[in-house]
């Protein structure tokens, strides 16, 4: 037997030399206004935020209100066991959490178990998705980020510890009808398969404020070039430059919007794996091809995946700088190496950007497991296959975005994988999954995690489905028809061609509003497309159960804790409620305040559930009381540099309203140096109670693409 003294000495030595056997007391440091950071164990020298190369917008963060640390520090538990990091964060009984990746079926994440793993989406919300961002937002108004480039497992209020602070009620299944197979849990528990990680907590008084802090800390949201917010068509795989020129002419003949064309794999001399070199049979003169389209106001966007073909000129340069395993017989360049990035840059600038290419669609950087590199792969930089899987989408976004920024040229493209820190990236996520309803849920969820998502259109079995999908995509970050496989056109269903054109034209008319909304993303961290749970007057804990009374004695009609995944806000003022094939009507939940129909200004309700039957030709849109919507006349393309257009300003309802219209040159990054305009629009009541609109003037010398002529439309019924 050992003595009590020797036992105490042994325990003390274990505590010093084996800290993984005990919990770690975290030291939280407020690194920016309302943002705290702590390091657990030994964080790895590769992380999500490092891969994204974030640059916090400190001035914008300092404009937000101060925030308190959201819970007692001693309620956060950590420990390192067997080389893995265990984290525990408290949850209250009435708390809901959102985020934890680009989920397609669920918005409420409490009570779920997920492994956050970059992957091609397989139809399940299990954490394996295109953007498995390890960031969650609480209905109480705070956010938590685990900055680890690992497959992270999250128990989002599922595990129940013996020493839980708030234990569930013990029930007898034999006699108690309230017995539950999954009792109440008072914690979010997270397992990181690494010896340490950095943890960030974002404070706030509302969920939106926490999301703003997250986005601003990551550099603020991206403002696309104006042409990027127009309509885009991706052409069939083997289209030649002549075919594409003809495609552009068909859009003009049909008087349909078109700002950029997606050129699919056939532009490569070999694809799967790729050469990144033009096929000279289909594209004998790439520079002429790009320039002639640009003369017609149309940009080109090139498809690629990053796996290098042995027959390409890049192969011998990158062969020693790539992974141990191939993808489709192509080598996988190690993008953590500066030398690799330099080789890519030289080739892409010379062969693409210098020839007029405006952006990229970056495919297949997500999965499936059976085609992408395995976790046993090794990379010359020393990082594992798992780590590279989690950050590769971020690395290639960051690399390509910097090529354009060095030219003071904004880009806008597509990507199949992303992660934390991507707010400032010029890319929209897409995939091969094709559920229309789930696409809208993903659009809702994208607003919690600082990414953009498009519910792209590819094909439809009926004219009704075609129109409904087109309506949805026109109210998303990228209005895209992806015709690479079947060659569909916007007018493929003649019976709804006019309605499809109408909604595409409406998007083009709304560019002043949409562009201003993206400026809010950049300068304020406000997502351009927003979950209802982030909207003032609609947050999770502000609703009251049906049948209960509000402070004035009137009944609320909105059910508490509803999972709202089929409607969302576009900017501050427009509520979007997509329709799906087969629906003649749908329910819409309105936040507090009065709401009006976008099209005719008719009052539709106030803080209640309404049922709408808009007919096939319209997507239901609603505007809050006092809402101001700046628009422009119908035009097929975004304004060119120096072009000025008239303004149409709509006001809805009976309340006075204010709106700040943002503008810049629409192409460069000069706005980051102050070259932009903020013009104040006001609608006030005169002495007789009549609504009167006024608009200010831009600061002299600042970019402003609108004429002095303004048409005012007061939509009130």
TrEMBL record:
User: Could you tell me the superkingdom of the organism this chain comes from?
Assistant: Bacteria
Matching Gene3D superfamilies, A to Z? Glycosidases, glycosyl hydrolase (family 31), Golgi alpha-mannosidase II
**Annotated InterPro entries:** DUF5110, Gal_mutarotase_sf_dom, GH, Glyco_hydro_31_C, Glyco_hydro_31_N_dom, Glyco_hydro_31_TIM, Glyco_hydro_b
Where does the Glycoside hydrolase family 31 TIM barrel domain lie? 223-516
Q: Name one GO molecular function term.
A: carbohydrate binding
Q: Name one GO biological process term.
A: carbohydrate metabolic process
Q: Which ranges carry the Glycoside hydrolase family 31 N-terminal domain?
A: 80-151
Keywords for the protein's UniProt record, in alphabetical order? Glycosidase, Hydrolase
Family annotation (CDD domains): GH31_N (cd14752), GH31_NET37 (cd06592)
List residues traversing the bilayer.
Answer: none
Q: Does the keyword Hydrolase apply?
A: yes
Which stretches make up the Glycosyl hydrolase family 31 C-terminal domain?
563-629
Q: What SUPFAM superfamilies does the database record attribute to this sequence?
A: (Trans)glycosidases, Galactose mutarotase-like, Glycosyl hydrolase domain
* DUF5110 domain residues: 647-700
The family note in this entry says: Belongs to the glycosyl hydrolase 31 family.
What protein is this chain from? Alpha-D-xyloside xylohydrolase
């Amino acid at each position: 037997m050992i003595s009590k003294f020797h036992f105490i000495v042994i325990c003390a030595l274990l505590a010093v030399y084996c800290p993984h056997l005990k919990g770690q007391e975290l030291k939280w440091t407020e690194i920016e206004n309302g943002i705290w950071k702590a390091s657990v164990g030994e964080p790895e020298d590769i992380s999500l935020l490092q891969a994204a190369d974030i640059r916090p917008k400190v001035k914008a963060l300092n404009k937000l209100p101060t925030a308190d640390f959201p819970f007692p520090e001693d309620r956060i538990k950590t420990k390192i066991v067997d080389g893995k990091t265990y984290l525990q964060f408290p949850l209250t009984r009435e708390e809901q959490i959102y985020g934890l990746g680009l989920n397609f079926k669920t918005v409420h994440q409490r009570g779920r178990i997920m492994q956050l793993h970059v992957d091609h989406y397989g139809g399940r919300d299990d954490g394996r998705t295109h953007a498995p961002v390890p960031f969650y937002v609480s209905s109480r108004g705070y956010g938590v980020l685990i900055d680890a480039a690992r497959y992270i497992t999250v128990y989002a209020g599922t595990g129940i510890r013996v020493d839980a602070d708030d234990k569930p009620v013990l029930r007898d299944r034999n006699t108690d009808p309230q017995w539950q197979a999954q009792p109440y849990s008072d914690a979010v528990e997270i397992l990181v398969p690494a010896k340490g990680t950095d943890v960030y907590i974002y404070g706030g008084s509302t969920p939106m404020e926490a999301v703003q802090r997250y986005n601003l800390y990551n550099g603020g949201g991206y403002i696309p070039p104006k042409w990027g917010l127009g309509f885009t068509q991706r052409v069939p795989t083997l289209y030649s430059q002549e075919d594409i020129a003809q495609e552009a002419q068909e859009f003009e003949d049909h008087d349909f919007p078109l700002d950029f064309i997606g050129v699919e794999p056939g532009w490569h001399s070999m694809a799967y794996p790729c050469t990144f070199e033009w096929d000279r049979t289909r594209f004998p003169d790439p520079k002429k091809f790009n320039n002639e389209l640009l003369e017609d106001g149309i940009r080109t966007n090139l498809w690629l995946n990053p796996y290098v073909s042995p027959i390409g000129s890049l192969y011998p340069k990158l062969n020693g700088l790539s992974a141990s395993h191939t993808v489709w017989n192509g080598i996988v360049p190690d993008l953590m190496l500066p030398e690799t990035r330099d080789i890519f840059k030289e080739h892409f600038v010379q062969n693409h950007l210098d020839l007029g290419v405006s952006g990229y669609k970056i495919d297949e950087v997500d999965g499936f497991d059976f085609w992408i590199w395995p976790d046993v792969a090794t990379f010359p930089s020393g990082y594992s296959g798992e780590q590279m899987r989690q950050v590769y989408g971020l690395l290639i976004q960051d690399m390509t975005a910097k090529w354009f920024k060095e030219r003071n040229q904004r880009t806008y493209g597509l990507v199949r994988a992303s992660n934390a820190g991507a707010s400032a990236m010029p890319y929209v996520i897409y995939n091969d999954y094709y559920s229309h309803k789930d696409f809208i849920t993903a659009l809702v969820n994208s607003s919690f995690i600082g990414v953009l998502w498009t519910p792209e259109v590819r094909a439809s079995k009926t004219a009704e489905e075609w129109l409904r999908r087109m309506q949805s995509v026109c109210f998303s970050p990228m209005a895209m028809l992806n015709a690479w496989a079947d060659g569909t056109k916007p007018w493929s269903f003649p019976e709804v061609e006019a309605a499809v054109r109408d909604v595409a034209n409406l998007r083009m008319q709304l560019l002043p509003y949409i562009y201003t909304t993206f400026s809010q993303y950049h300068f304020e961290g406000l997502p351009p497309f927003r979950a209802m749970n982030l909207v003032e007057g609609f947050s999770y804990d502000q609703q009251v159960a049906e049948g209960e009374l509000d402070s004035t004695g009137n009944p609320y009609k909105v059910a508490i804790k509803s999972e709202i995944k089929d409607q969302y806000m576009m900017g501050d003022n427009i509520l979007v409620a997509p329709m799906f094939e087969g629906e003649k009507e749908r329910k819409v939940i309105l936040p507090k305040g009065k709401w009006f129909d976008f099209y005719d200004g008719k009052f539709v309700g106030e803080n209640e559930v309404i049922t709408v039957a808009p007919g096939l030709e319209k997507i239901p849109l609603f505007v809050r009381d006092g809402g101001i919507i700046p628009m422009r006349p119908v035009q097929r393309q975004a304004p060119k540099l120096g072009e000025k257009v008239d303004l149409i300003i709509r006001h809805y309802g009976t309340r006075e309203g204010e709106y700040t219209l943002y503008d810049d040159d629409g192409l460069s990054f000069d706005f980051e140096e102050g070259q932009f305009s903020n013009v104040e629009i006001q609608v006030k009541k005169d002495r007789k109670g009549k609504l009167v609109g006024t608009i200010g003037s831009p600061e002299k010398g600042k970019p402003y693409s609108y004429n002095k002529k303004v048409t005012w439309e007061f939509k009130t019924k």
